[in-house]
Amino acid sequence: MDTTLRITSAHAGSSFTARIEKISGQKLLACYQCGKCSAGCPMAAHMDVLPNRMIRMAQLGMQQQLLETKAIWMCVSCLTCNSRCPKGIKIAEVIEALRKAALGGGERNDNLKIMELTPEARSVLPPIATISAMRKLTS
Amino acid sequence: MGNENKPMKLAYYPGCTLKNQATNFDVSTVSSMAKLDVEVEELDRWNCCGTVHALDSDNVMNRVAPITNMIRVKEMQAKTEGMAGEFMTSCAMCYNTLKRANIDVQQRADALETINELLYLEKTKYQGDVEVLHLLEYLRDRVGFDNLAKKVTRPLKGLRVACYYGCLLMRPKEVAFDDAENPTIMENLIRALGATPVEFSHKMECCGAYQTVDKPDVIADRTDRIMGSASEERADLVVVSCPLCAFNLDYRQDDAKRLNPDFNNMPVLYFTQLMALAFGCDEAALRFDLQHIDPLPVLKARGLD
To answer: CB distance from B208 to chain A under 8 Å?
Structure first.
């Protein structure tokens, strides 16, 4: 993904940034890019954009690029990043807000298509897996 | 610990998965508590906790399901002599969701009021006065590991156990009942059972949780790393407190093996199964038949089959 951006005053204080701050209850501008969240993230190897970069993109109001990432769906809210952020930002809450923004786009666009799994694959899953996945990945 | 004649009564929240795939976690919990003279009584009409704590700021609806269970505890307490206003669950995910919802309504009077209004048909109003306990916490603080050790009839001598905590027992720190980065409560329990706890690098690393539903290859990678790190320390088996961790680390070993031919299969048990084993319980309380990777060869090698 091309995330090159020429920063102009238009990127500061975008309505997208404000919306994510409101849904997550977090102050995005507190982040100074130390990268501890990404360094400890157990899912980082499977992400196209790392957590610290997601925060930067949210600060800059890059709504479309951010909501198109695979990474926002890869985060499983293990809260390792939250426990280590020196600025007290709850990164998992921010990523949850990004998922909410992507799922609440007007038309149903679930990330998890559970009926596309084979009946065999579905049958072995414990309820704890199915319920939590539906809660996090569908609207 | 209760006196010899009168067992302690403890309200018990099993959760959905312990009544489905994780029957072994349920029966080993109840059986080992009986050996400790704690009478575990399953809550009447408990409902699913929701499995995950909603992290967004607009979340009152998501607290209703967990809080309904607090009302059930109050109701059971009212009709049971000698029962405290507390309950225990052995599932890490239920513990986390129930505990966080409880803390949330204890801190936000407006949210609690809204929930009580939504639950206007309930005869009992919730006032934030139920305590949520994880079984490990109950064993350490109410039973005591020293007392527990006295009930061991079959010490798990020589068994090398890697204690895997995953995410939900110790994060966030508001719910942690031990050090959030390097807990030792499970190791202390394992030691009381006569086994040898093994330190390994991935004991706090997430297993990938519900990504197992549609991304089994991601879980295979996580399982390869987590079980691999336990294997490097020559563990005989891994113990867990979460049925989702158990599914990923046990069942997804087939996928891990496909991903990495050098992967060594290793059994994954619930900590309650090791307790039940050390207390001399039989297969009906252990249900090793539900394990994907058979633990019997490892136990046999240590003279514990």
So the answer is: yes
**Structure token pair of residue B127:** 């006032």
The DSSP output letter for B182 is S
pLDDT tens, position by position, A9-51: 777 778 999 999 999 999 999 999 999 999 999 999 999 999 9
Handedness of CA B121, B123, B126, B131 (dihedral sign): negative
Closest Cβ opposite residue B57 in set A24, A42, A82 = A24
Contacts with B211 from chain A: Cβ below 8 Å: 43, 74, 76, 133
**3-state SS class at B83:** strand
Residues in B touching A118 (Cβ below 8 Å): none
Q: Does the pLDDT value for residue B5 go beyond 60?
A: no
Q: Is the pTM of this model over 0.90?
A: yes
Closest residue, chain A, to B168 (C-alpha): A78
> Could you tell me the two tokens for A133?
């996945």
Whose tokens are 């031919």? That residue is B261
Print the SS3 string covering chain A. CCCCCCCCHHHCCCHHHHHHHHHHCCCHHHCCCCCHHHHHCCCHHHCCCCHHHHHHHHHCCCHHHHHCCCHHHHCCCCCHHHHHCCCCCCHHHHHHHHHHHHHCCCCCCCCCCHHHCCHHHHHHCCHHHHHHHHHHHCC
Chain A residues with CB inside 8 Å of B53's CB? 77
Q: Does B205 touch chain A (CB under 8 A)?
A: yes
Rounded to whole angstroms, the Cα distance separating A33 from A25 reads 19
Q: What pLDDT, on the 0 to 100 scale, is given for residue A13?
A: 79
Which of B57, B208, B244 lies nearest to residue A128, judging by beta carbons?
A: B244
Which structure tokens are listed for B51? 């499995």
Reported as a single tens digit per residue, the pLDDT across B204-236 is 999 999 999 999 999 999 999 999 999 999 999
- Kindly provide the ipTM of the predicted complex, given to two decimals: 0.93
Question: What values do phi and psi take at B85, rounded to 5?
Answer: -80, 60
Look at domain A3-133 and name its CATH class: mainly alpha
Residue B260 half-sphere exposure toward CB, CA atoms < 13 A = 19
Helices (H) and strands (E) in chain B, counts: 13, 8
For residue B16, what is the nearest residue in chain A, using CA coordinates?
Answer: A127
B51, B181, B214 ranked by CB distance to A128: nearest: B51
Nearest to B218 among A46, A112, A128 (CB): A46
Closest CA relative to residue B119, chosen from B47, B54, B26, B227: B47
Q: How far apart are CA B124 and CA B121, in angstroms?
A: 9
Asked if pLDDT for residue B120 goes beyond 70, the answer is: yes
